[in-house]
Amino acid sequence: MKTVTLTVAEALMRFLGAQQIEIDARAESLFGCVFAIFGHGNVTCLSQPLHDGRDSLPVWRGQNEQSMALAAVAYAKAHQRRRIGIALASIGPGATNMVTAAGVAHTNRLPLLLLAGDVHVGRLPDPVLQQAEHFHDPSITVNDAFKPVVRYWDRVVTPSQLLQTLPQMVSTLIDPETCGPVFIGLPQDVQGQVYDYPEAFFATRIHRIARPEPEPRAIDEVAALLRRAKRPLIVSGGGVHHALATQSLERFARTHGVPVVETIAGRAALLQSHPLNAGPIGVTGSDSANQMAGDADVVLAIGTRLQDFSTGSWTVFRNPELTLVSINVCRHDAVKHFAVPVRADAGAALDRLHATLGTWRADDSWQALALARSVVWKATVAERTRPAPGLPSYAQVVGAVNRDIQPGDTVITAAGGLPAELNMNWLSPQIGCFDIEFGYSCMGYEVAAGWGVKIARPAHEAMVLVGDGSYLMQNADLYSAVLGGQKITVVLCDNGGYAVIDKLQRNVGNDSFNNLLTDCRRAGPEVPRVDFVKHAQALGASAEKVDTVAGLEQALARARRATGCVVIVVDTDPGRWSECDCWWDVGLPAQPHSAEHQRAVDDWNQGRALQRRGV
To answer: Can you give the residue range of the structural domain that contains 605?
Structure first.
């Protein structure tokens, strides 16, 4: 057996560069990019192999480890989990900065490779710079903090370990059931140690995403349930996109006349113009979708975790005779809430079920009801998004971006009020290209994600919608995009604070406090406001401020013609929000403190009475 002598750092990078993925009958690099900040914990051993392999593993320099890892998450989502980004950090704070991004990837079932330096295994120099010591267990380092938020965790303590660790790492990242973040800790002394690795270990490997087939008996059971159903409904989740199953979904819905509602992650699986698309479901959804869910007697939940925002904390499914079927590649998700489980790839299951059902179709009146309800919802959206005098609402901003969108553009948001407004009011003109990070609802995802999406899809526009609060948390990778020449367009909605949380605060009968800038403790009566235009310009973007929908539309047109990053600041109304008739379970104090608070508690108790607790 031929061997080659390499350091751990050299072997790691050579192995990563040799991994490929089959996409549309061609092989591409599995790991498409590296986001790196170097420090003493990784620069001495890892930077040179990355430099030498930069043609196969392009390296982008970020400004913050968390936002770099968030960019890698968005990169993977833009590639529908078929290509993976790497985030590389030094030790200590650089490493722990990435824990939040790991939580985003873990919650959203997205692949992410995290590589971080670690303290010396030999321990002779202990305690090293940036080491947090644990008196009771010296083997613990801050990198153990990743364990709750990754699918696979390992620390390389000896060079030969790579022969077992790296194949397991890749398997975890590309398996549809286990897909999520992977963390590898790289102690500083081990990175430079050498080993005689088999040359075959670095041979090019072409991976294929598994598409597990359903068991025939499971398909027969679901087909029998559908044939008896009077009001069947499909809940389309993010797994439909991950499985590349949007065409299978459309064929199944059209052939068998089954209406479709979409979760936040499943949005844009059908065109909004499709007569069977009844709209987004849940707390930030549409009355049309929630009404369909309330009447349905058989629900096919496809590729979804059935999160509380999608189920109205389990109050949207109100038919006492309901049978829930969960089609999911992940066992953990398939068996939730007493569902009839079908463990399979979404596309494979839909295609098998389609063939088994033959000419069966749902009742025409049920399809007509879905269409009629969605027409009412779309009329509501038109009213919400129509330009009007005064400061724009978030809905009007969403409407302007929706009218501007072009084929291939990706719209991106996360956390705050924009995910709800985008979900409620977006009329999908294309399949996919829609990224609302609402699994982990991570403030600060937006700008970094726009950067990652643009790296993944350089020929198309990345349209970022972000609030002032979220922008202030993470904005430095606007400069990263400027530095790397990746044009993103940021629509920054300034409503003077965390306005949507102020709304929640007031909705439950509490006083406004510490959310809007006007309600915060401050030095004087005047509220200092950030000049976001100057800030964006200081980071190298072109920027302008508008205060009307017409002004926003004109600015969007100018941004489309621009060659570099653009930030459009829009003053928005902090008190105008879209509403949906759906309950959400938020904990309230058992002892009300005012009459208004008592009314909120009474409403909460009424909603709780509708929660589905069993089969």
So the answer is: 585-615
pLDDT of residue 131 exceeding 90, the answer is no
Q: What is the DSSP letter of 611?
A: -
Residues 336-355: tens digit of each pLDDT: 888 999 999 999 999 999 99
In a domain, 494, yes or no: yes
What is the distance between the alpha carbons of residues 349 and 329, in angstroms, rounded to a whole number?
10
The answer to whether the CB of 499 falls within 8 A of the CB of 417 is yes
Are the beta carbons of 113 and 173 closer than 8 angstroms?
yes
The length of the chain in residues reads: 615
Single-letter amino acid, residue 344: A
Q: State the SS3 of 414-437.
A: ECCCHHHHHHHHCCCCCCCCEEEE
Q: How far is CA 249 from CA 270, 286, 296, 346, 572, in A?
A: 8, 20, 18, 9, 37
Q: Rounded distance, CA 233 to CA 293, Å?
A: 7
- Under the banding of pLDDT at 50, 70 and 90, the label for residue 494 is very high
- The count of domains in the chain is 4
Q: Where are the alpha helices (DSSP H) in 243-393?
A: 246-256, 287-295, 308-311, 331-334, 346-357, 364-385
Please, which residues bridge with residue 515 across strands? none
Q: Is 71 inside a domain boundary?
A: yes
pLDDT score recorded for residue 161: 98
| Same domain membership, residue 83 and residue 190 | yes
Query: Mapping DSSP to helix (H, G, I), strand (E, B) and coil, where does residue 333 land?
Result: helix
* Band of residue 614 on the pLDDT scale cut at 50, 70, 90: low
- Could you read off the pLDDT of 150-206 as tens digits, one per residue? 999 999 999 999 999 999 999 999 999 999 999 999 999 999 999 999 999 999 999
578 within domain boundaries: no
**Nearest by Cα to 226 from 308, 147, 315, 296:** 296
Q: Which of 201, 205, 189, 204 minimizes the C-alpha distance to 7?
A: 189
In this predicted structure, the answer to whether residue 397 has a pLDDT above a threshold of 60 is yes
Tell me the CA distances in angstroms from 519 to 377, 392, 492, 544, one per residue in order. Answer: 35, 22, 21, 27
In one letter, which amino acid is 495? N
Mean of all residue pLDDT scores within the chain: 96
